[in-house]
Design goal:
This protein is α+β, with helices and mostly antiparallel strands and about 230 residues long. It has one domain: Extracellular Endonuclease, Chain A (3-Layer(aba) Sandwich). It is built from 4 helices and 10 strands; from the N terminus they run ββββαβββββαβαα. Strands 1, 2, 5, 8, 9 and 10 form a 6-stranded antiparallel β-sheet that branches. The protein has a two-stranded antiparallel sheet with strand order 3-4. A hairpin with a 3-residue loop joins β1 (about 5-15) and β2. The radius of gyration is 18 Å and the shape is globular.
């Protein structure tokens, strides 16, 4: 199992009421071809900052910062953040799988893997009719859930390009365009899985209803914001 180092900060943001939370701003870990086993799934008794629930309309996941596939613990509260289901999978999951294959292809080399969490107030955007801005404009993904994550990998202190890592994806893209030379991947929080438009629509899941005009959804968003102290 790998052993991450976590950087934590106390952050306060105010839209209506001031909310202060102790949050992880960065997870950093040395990955080797022989230390990525022993990870574990998320402990359901841990509710990371910003958590509401895993059902409609929030679709929250207890997302690993250092992924299970990389040897990351699901029982260490510092390694779990509130992510929406579409952010956690496939985006986080597929990048972690590619990183693992990349590291395994280079035995005997130490890699530095970092995940930075962004909580900048300007990164949360408002949706008309809702009290508190959210990640990607999602009123069910508000601070202290992170607005987005930046993922990077260093080999011998040199940042690796997305093109080099993407080659280890199950279906590598033919052309990453301008992203190929980038050395970090930004993953926005707040996204839903694509199946929300099919199976969840059939069950009248609130996450696929009209956000602007759905009074029930607005009431649920108020309850969520109240639970975190944003409104009273």
């Amino acid at each position: 199992m790998c052993t991450p180092v976590f950087t934590k900060s106390s952050i306060s943001l105010t839209w209506v009421n001031k909310v202060t939370a102790s949050v992880v701003t960065k997870a950093s870990v040395v990955l080797r071809s022989n230390n990525m086993s022993g990870g574990s799934g998320p402990d359901s008794s841990i509710n990371p900052p910003g958590w509401y629930d895993g059902t409609c309309p929030a679709h929250h996941n207890r997302g690993h910062l250092v992924g299970n596939a990389l040897g990351g613990s699901g029982t260490d509260a510092d390694n779990l953040v509130t992510l929406t289901s579409g952010t956690n999978h496939p985006f986080m999951y597929e990048f972690e799988e590619a990183v693992k294959k990349f590291v395994l292809a280079h035995p005997g080399v130490d890699f530095q893997y970092e995940v930075e969490c962004n909580y900048d107030k300007a990164s949360y955007t408002a949706l008309d009719g809702y009290d508190i801005p959210g990640a990607s404009g999602n009123p069910f993904c508000i601070f202290p859930a992170p607005a987005f994550l930046d993922l990077s990998l260093k080999k011998n202190q040199t940042l690796q390009s997305l093109a080099a890592i993407a080659a280890y994806l199950p279906n590598p893209p033919d052309d990453l365009g301008t992203m190929a030379a980038l050395t970090s991947l930004r993953i926005p929080n707040g996204g839903y899985k694509l199946y929300s438009g099919t199976s969840h629509f059939a069950s009248n899941c609130a996450s696929v209803n009209d956000l602007k005009n759905n009074s029930d959804l607005k009431n649920k968003a108020k309850s969520y914001a109240k639970s975190l102290g944003h409104i009273t």
